[in-house]
Specification:
Blueprint: H1 8-18, E1 24-28, E2 34-39, H2 47-52, E3 61-66, E4 69-76, E5 79-86
Antiparallel strand pairs: 1-2, 1-5, 3-4, 4-5
InterPro entries: YNR034W-A/EGO2, YNR034W-A/EGO2_sf
Pfam families: YNR034W-A-like
Length: 91
């Protein structure tokens, strides 16, 4: 998965818009062990391997698109949180 490039303002706006529109979430630890999943995240646990190898920005944020789904990735203190949102919400 490759990270879509965006500046700090775009990243903050994306985060503010993503949380209320979440289709699902995944969270995992530094050993790629699932901590929690909700919504469509429950059926996307296999994403953990690809996401754990994704290059993130200096703030630990990245976003990529998988078809009609945006995959927002946040990493801090060894824990990663993924928020899945509809790509159509940003057209």
């Amino acid at each position: 998965m490759s990270c879509l490039k965006m500046d700090t303002q775009e990243r903050q706006q994306r985060l503010q818009q993503s949380i209320p529109k979440a289709l699902g979430t995944l969270s995992f630890d530094q050993n790629n062990r699932l901590v929690e999943s909700t919504g469509i995240g429950k059926s996307r646990v296999e994403d953990i391997i690809d996401i754990s190898q994704m290059e993130l920005d200096d703030d630990g944020y990245g976003v990529t698109q998988d078809g009609e789904i945006l995959v927002n990735v946040f990493k801090d203190a060894g824990r990663s949180v993924i928020i899945y949102t509809s790509a159509n919400g940003y057209d």
